[in-house]
# Entry
Amino acid sequence: MILDAKVPSGPLAEKWTRFKREQRLISPANKAKYTVIVVGTGLAGASAAASLAELGYKVLVFCFHDTPRRAHSIAAQGGINAAKNYRNDGDSIFRLFYDTIKGGDFRSREANVYRLAEVSGNIIDQCVAQGVPFAREYGGLLETRSFGGAQLQRTFYCRGQTGQQLLLGAYQALCRQISYGTVKMFPRCEMLDLVVIDGRARGIITRHLVTGKIEAFAADAVVLATGGYSNVFYLSTNAIGCNVSATYRAYKRGAFFANPCFTQIHPTCIPVSGEHQSKLTLMSESLRNDGRVWVPKRREDVAKHPNDIPEADRDYFLERKYPSYGNLAPRDIASRAAKEVCDEGRGVGPSGRGVYLDLADAIRRQGIDRIREKYGNLFDMYERITGENAYTQPMRIYPAPHYTMGGLWVNYELMSNLPGLFVIGEANFSDHGANRLGASALMQGLADGYFILPYTLTHWLAGVKPGLPPLDHPEFRRCAGEAQQRLKRLLAIGGQKTAVEFHRQLGHILWDYVGMSRSRDGLLRAIDQIRTLRQQFWENVRVPGSDTDLNMALERANRVADFLEFAELMALDALRREESCGCHFRVEYQTPDGEAKRDDERFCHVAAWEYAGPDKEPIRHEEPLVFETVKLTERSYK
Amino acid sequence: MKVTLHIWRQKSPADQGRFVTYSLDQVSPDMSFLEMLDMLNEQLIQQGEEPVAFEHDCREGICGSCAMMINGLAHGPERGTTTCQLHMRSFPDGAEIYVEPWRARAFPILKDLVCDRSALDRIIQAGGYVSVGTGGAPDANCLPVPKTAQDKAMDAAQCIGCGACVAACPNASAMLFLAAKVSHLAHLPQGQPERHERVRKMLAQHDREGFGHCTNIGECEAACPKEISVEHIAQLNRDYIAASLLSLVR
# Structure
């Protein structure tokens, strides 16, 4: 099947304008006849729900937290990119577009990325109008800083809590609509299935997490804004609740899953300290603005206290290998470089899997107060977790699973191959190709929600008659029944191991074989081990309690069951992509100096997977990536 | 290390609830408090018992989900720390630890350590926003904001909505939560047009939800994991008085 991305014709810079000029509209009086379901209340979901309600649609919003303000966007630290060029340092829409395409190792759609850069400035305007307290200069104008993969300062930020402040802005916009009655909010409601009738997404099945009640909801369109799936690795920087279930269930109902193997390993996280650990904590990439990454030159020095290792005996490996970007090399490259020096036996810390991130130079140059002002909350967090004071000795960091570029396939209008199913934010396969640049996730989530979906969804809805299918339609009943059955089945197994133990084991398999470096043999082994583990899960998991009240162990088991299926798809995608690009590093395909080697002849495409039934190999479709404006080159940060 | 836990177990809102004692061995001082509870829960599941229900998500101190009284202190003994960021190294070996849910009339208990904090959402819905729709915002730099005002706004805006201020307050007042939002928007030019109406509406909702009044005790600031200062409550009071007087004049 040829996937049609529906990219408007014409020059790159005019495509979005042309779409808006030619799109269909719905009159304000008629918008209220349409019902839209939005699942998820992170940056993408909350901004979309508020914007759609402002337009006049009837919006139903679902989240599994007790309040929409807790979505994991809240944890984003460093900042949000925008091509404002307030710094006079040479930024432009084209440059942000180009940095993002190149950062993604030429595996994203030109037109989407250009549009993202085009609306980036509006996001900052919108957020400031909402009262988001971005950092400012003494003159009262907005301050910016640098992030990886860019040679200019285009990242706006609110101390180390940018995601929190942007999310609260979107949450407050959502609250305003809830108070007007245009949005009906369903907190503590987890989506268990997507309902597809005659090939079109028509609603969802949810479970109320306190009462256990399974319910069906119908709509004219369904928007999934359910985030990424890094938690498939068990240990990741994601919140414990983040999961793949909503997008995976949509996949099983016919939506294509694109590039599932594109998972970002973030270079600056606090290293793993032991088996008891439940999650990993990120230290914002913004620290690389002022921090220098190093390990000892000699293996013998790794046990020494870092302050006792003289300058001459330190290897600032990012500065050495990538002199023009230095410590601000993109995430995939910085992560691989850290793994490489640790593999050589030069890693530091108790496990030998760590490198130093050293701010001593910056503290000397700028003074401790300035550093505290910029990064104080990160230093505090570091001290709480490790018990070490990073003002007096370097931090230890190591890469950890963070963001997922893969997600449900969408066309230029953000609609999946299933009519009526729209996917936004991290949940779609997105604009980041094979590697996302820092501070671009917040930009994409809000671009989708505030400035893209309201146009494209209107265009699509204008082509369909408003009206909901009845909730006693056989398809609603079937999906609700299956969701209920599955919970009963999980509760009935009564085995020996908890879902968390299975999850931890799955994480080990993925980290070893589908992590920072991948090989054909390893991936085949991973697929084999995942299948065995999945079988054991369904025979031997123990889930306590019942499905008629608050049962967090049941919620977890239900999500782990999806991870156990999804992990295989991820490994399969990695196996079939016989090239290295961005985060996807296949050891068989590398340049002589160990960099990722793309194969543009064979793999300059998006891989979109179609579910073919239980225990059948899914079908791989391709969407060719056509580059009309940029030239494909070897991605170099040297 | 070894700890003895006395944990509040309550099956449902209607259930009476009681403390149940568990002892836990081989706790690592590097574990977070929640990882210690994870360990307990894994053992409970293995023994065929129901695990302790508690809310948690980001585990990096920002989502505001985790909420428990630990030895009578909201979020435990460390200043400026959420429960998820509290580590077992803060407790001595052999410690006796009492763990309870937030207790406030406006936060009904749902199960074990989980309570319903939706009242806080309704306070924001009553007016804790700037009424701007998407689109049409002027250029972000068209209105300079003094750095000091922005800093103050940011200090207040850091609130994570966990409800520790309510749990710590002898009156179960949500005044610090409310003040943080009022003060955040009051310090910015964007918040001015609705400043007075906002404070009146939000305060009215606060009272309707059954939160108590503020009597300047200051427990809230001591318990706040983001160390939000009670000076924002003073700001709230000033704004409220101004708003009330103005409404009389009009």
Notes: Chain B is about 35% helix and 10% strand.
